[in-house]
């Protein structure tokens, strides 16, 4: 048996890195930044008002001061009107500060209150300060968020809504990034019927391709196909060749191919399991017993440059393998700086036994007092329904044989 860490390290060493592309921002969601984006200018670009109100000289704007309104500034205005002590410029949020003013009195701090900026209204001729500002009040300073040339988003970051907004603010409409892999999913098993079909004796609804597809999509990968193959070598061989053949196919400049393949089932030792026979025979996929529970039977290889992951068939084992092995690998292929989800330490609410010498991964519910195994039981790699209640995995190291109530355990929040 090989440890989980050793197995993962071996995969990491042979994973290919995907090519970086130049992507417009509206196609970059979920991609991983390949080149750090630096701001073209300071953010904010210029000193501007944080409030709708009046730009003033603070020293001449004590409570009760009556100021003459000499100009009106909307956001987007290029004007820089002069303003002397005893004068005010009506200013809206985001408008550049007049260079001679040193504070903003919000509408609410004037006697006229919010009426001083009713929609479409002209500024009043005079404004009376109700509450004196301090120097610098309500001014957003140029460069206080970032200076010009500073990194806006660093390479290795996944581009989510927050990162994309930062890049746009930094003055860029394209990024150099790696999209997450395109993956083909193959579920093997002669017992499998479509989820809506009524199973005959011996048959079960097919759920692994649903699980794998959804988990990969949630990880930002693109699932190009999800196919169910019966347990016979010829069918599987045809399907694998077709899938891997796609990897090389490109038509009309469109990338049709797959970057990775994920199979489920047939990874153990069963008499009718064709996965080992078909993929192991070529010598490029190596099957291992990994010290992981569930998820003992794993296969991995790179065929013609395409990584192929063979996961065991039991649904909870599939969920565990996706989280600990496949997801980090796919993120690493896109050069994600953090391929793994963070782990937290939380107390166990109840105790449970863990197999000696194997890393145990337990679907848990997270409560205010800590974590508890779903339905009160730690193991059961077939229990796909109980998986629905879990929101996290507890990861118990090989040397721990018994988790006791109150023990701190490592937890990966999965949603
Ligand atoms: N003699 C041994 N038997 C088993 C061992 C072992 O070491 N020695 N390991 C057990 C463990 S652990 C696992 S996990 C399974 C793994 O077996 P396979 O990877 O060959 O998977 P299958 O036999 O194809 O299926 C296992 C189980 O999962 C159900 N299944 C499979 N595919 C799907 C699907 N797409 N949707 C829903 N359910 C699926 C399948 O019906 C089986 O019940 O082997 C143990 N046996
Ligand atoms: O290892 Mo199996 O993958 O325990 O259910």
Automatic annotation (TrEMBL):
Which reaction is catalysed here? adenylyl-molybdopterin + molybdate = Mo-molybdopterin + AMP + H(+)
Top-rank lineage group of the source organism: Bacteria
Instruction: Give the matching SMART domains.
Output: MoCF_biosynth (SM00852)
Enumerate the spans annotated as MoaB/Mog domain: 184-332
Q: In which pathway does it act?
A: Cofactor biosynthesis; molybdopterin biosynthesis
Q: InterPro entries per the record?
A: MoaB/Mog-like_dom_sf, MoaB/Mog_dom, MoeA-like, MoeA_C_domain_IV, MoeA_C_domain_IV_sf, MoeA_linker/N, MoeA_linker/N_sf
UniProt enzyme class: transferase
Listed name of the protein: Molybdopterin molybdenumtransferase
* Family listed: Belongs to the MoeA family.
Q: What does this protein do?
A: Catalyzes the insertion of molybdate into adenylated molybdopterin with the concomitant release of AMP.
Query: Which Pfam family is one of those matched by this entry?
Result: MoCF_biosynth
Q: What are the UniProt keywords, alphabetically?
A: Magnesium, Metal-binding, Molybdenum, Molybdenum cofactor biosynthesis, Transferase
Q: What is its EC number?
A: 2.10.1.1
Q: Which cofactor does it need?
A: Mg(2+)
